[in-house]
Amino acid sequence: MASSSSKGYRTRLIHAGESGEKGNVPSAPPIVPSATFVMPPAHVDAYTDPSYDWTNHLTGAEEVTEYARHTNPTIRMLEQKVAAAEEAEAAAVFGSGMAAATAVLLHRLRAGDRLVLADVCYVSVSEFAHDTLAGLGVEVVRVDPTDLDAVRAAVRPGTTLVYIESPTNPIMRLTDIAAVAEIARAAGAETVVDSTFATPLATRPLDLGADWVIHSLTKYFSGHGDALGGAVVASAERIRGLWQDSRIRQGGVLSPFDAWLIARGMDTLPIRMAVHEASAFTVARFLEAHPKVTRVMYPGLPSHPQHELARRQMRNMSGMLTFQVEDGAQLARIMARQLRVFQFAVSLGQQRSLLFYIPAEQVGQPPFHLSEHALRGYQAFGGKGLFRVSVGLEDAEDLCDDLAASLAMLP
Ligand SMILES: Cc1ncc(COP(=O)(O)O)c(C=O)c1O
After folding, report:
1. Domain residue ranges in the chain
2. pLDDT single digits (tens) 16-71
3. Is 194 a known active-site residue?
4. What is the pLDDT at residue 5?
5. Which member of 240, 260, 339, 394 has the greatest number of CB atoms within 10 A?
6. Which of 174, 219, 233, 348 to mutate to test the pocket of ligand 1 (most atoms within 8 A of CB)?
7. Does domain 9-266 have CATH number 3.40.640.10?
8. What CATH number is given for 269-408 in this structure?
């Protein structure tokens, strides 16, 4: 893991992107909501010169803040914090995780290109690939990324991008990032990893050979369930190209207020992830021992089919897990009424514990674009239906008691 400074990780994360000025300046970084910025005379002098080269301006390399869709001091601070979190050269932030994912896909793919996409991935990415990218003439090939022979066969020369997620939402399947990135590189393709479930506390996809990392900042980075955001992390050169293409032209930018909330949340990311992981172990072990629970899927448990890979690839096992019972639909109806600490809700990675139920037969419906093959993968990890659990920061014993009370009502 590359370290850009002699200071510790938490120190760098907290101070990244902040001014460090010694004057009578605010200790907490301010929110800058301005949509436009007064141009410094030196910049006006520079760009009115006929020889002025606009390249640096349009790729974000120039330090002039002109207009908030291009950049803004609060956005710039968050980008430096996100890059510090991944110990990477650069990051670009967007208005949501989906805006970050689609920014990379639209930036890198053109008609006639091939995208190799994990058979199970965040559902809106799946829908975007099939409904939007395929409509633009991109060939979309789905593959089970745990089957490296299948990945080799799918990533034929001429493939532009390989897009994977680890752990995969919602089935908690892992992908061997180093192995897939090596196959992609050998074929001249770039690898994109959605690392939202893992966070940089667990996994550094760039160190494992990936070219692009996606995060939904809405989740663990923000950590408090009160802001939407997304990030792309990559080399400075890749981010410069993406910046011009996506931020300026597509415009899916983050609001300064949400950027500020996410930056504030990120200061405690390492501390929070330690508690998320410890409590997830407690909840996972409780569920595994419960007579009405038929299966628990948590990378930290030896019962996870890829536990060895998890130990190699995840330094923090995260707070996400799934479990199954015989009649999930009935337990879902009980939980929606009975839970007192957990909230029955989608999303993840925040201080409040969240869970919801996904019936396996419904993910086969056409809008979700899962192939027959993907459905088999879904069922292998998710059975007839699964509860996706985001273990929050409450006391783990209270979480177990809350789950026990609902499970006790299941016949
Ligand atoms: C793995 C993963 N990637 C991307 C996204 C999209 O993020 P957002 O909701 O911030 O657009 C999500 C949202 O749940 C997700 O779980």
Report:
1. 9-266, 269-408
2. 999 888 888 899 999 999 999 999 999 999 999 999 988 877 777 777 888 999 88
3. yes
4. 63
5. 260
6. 219
7. yes
8. 3.90.1150.10
